[in-house]
Specification:
The protein is α+β, with helices and mostly antiparallel strands. The protein has 2 domains: about 100 residues, Immunoglobulin-like, CATH 2.60.40; about 90 residues. The chain has 6 helices and 8 strands. A 4-stranded mixed beta sheet has the order 4-1-7-8, covered by helices on one side. The protein has a 4-stranded antiparallel beta sheet with strand order 3-2-5-6. A hairpin with a 7-residue loop joins strand 2 and strand 3. Helix 2 packs antiparallel against helix 4, helix 4 runs antiparallel to helix 5 and helix 5 packs antiparallel against helix 6.
């Protein structure tokens, strides 16, 4: 014997309709993140200090900065919220480590790191963490090898031509690491543009620093002759192959 389906209509007071609507609105409101903010939570193993500084530059020349200092809690954790109106490189600075991230408005990420071990990779997770995850691996795999400090420390052993070749190799490897990354197509276009501009800037900034760095690494009479030779090299090689001297590369 099959049962008979009975449909009952229950009258709900209008008060409950209004109450449920209000609750729904509150839930939606609570789940919405401010459009022009980013939230970072973190955990620091083996911290040296008691605070974490989080900052970003508000213009390309770095003359204006937005920053916040956050105290570590008893478990060496922290939470910070920063105003952010567009995608930016955001830095987490501790006494012994400086971590570069890229965040867009609305991002909510979590980061864990070991301050005492510079060889350990920070772990970045959360909403909007993709580019920051790339930057962590980029810094470890190519950023260190072709860093300014590494190249300038060896400057006394390189002729202008050798230094140009070394700087160019660094530029090529950094650019390839970016463009060949498995998630390259998913990166924020603004992030890609900023990374390419930074990689190019790093190359030519090294070339500008080379004469002074070389001069301080050798005896003064030799340095004077070198600087004259370098200016000739700059005019005949650098200016003819780049746009640094006010002309298009040829």
């Amino acid at each position: 014997m099959s049962g008979k389906l009975i449909t009952k209509h229950i009258t709900v007071p209008k008060f409950w309709h209004s109450l449920m609507l209000l609750i729904s609105m509150l839930v939606v409101f609570a789940s919405c993140k401010p459009a022009n903010e980013v939230t970072i939570t973190g955990k620091v193993a083996n911290p040296v200090g008691q605070t974490v500084e989080i900052y970003y530059f508000k213009n390309l020349v770095g003359s204006e900065m937005e920053n916040i200092e956050v105290p570590l809690d008893v478990n060496h954790g922290f939470t910070a919220t920063l105003p952010l109106s567009e995608g930016q490189f955001v830095y987490i600075r501790l006494s012994r480590r400086n971590i570069m991230l890229y965040l867009q408005p609305g991002a909510e990420i979590a980061i864990t790191l070991d301050e005492a071990n510079p060889d350990s990779l920070p772990v970045v997770t959360g909403e909007g963490a993709l580019e920051s995850q790339f930057l962590v691996s980029y810094a470890m795999n190519v950023g260190r090898t072709h860093s300014r400090a590494v190249l300038l420390n060896n400057v006394g052993n390189l002729t202008p031509e050798q230094f140009l070749a070394t700087a160019t190799q660094g530029y090529t490897e950094k650019k390839a690491y970016l463009e060949n990354h498995e998630y390259f197509a998913e990166f924020d276009p603004n992030f890609v543009a900023l990374m390419k501009a930074n990689i190019l800037y790093e190359k030519y900034n090294l070339l500008l620093e080379y004469p002074m760095a070389f001069a301080t690494s050798i005896q003064v009479p030799k340095a004077r002759n070198f600087l004259r030779n370098f200016m000739h090299f700059w005019k005949t090689t650098i200016c003819l192959t780049t746009s640094l001297c006010g002309r298009a590369p040829i």
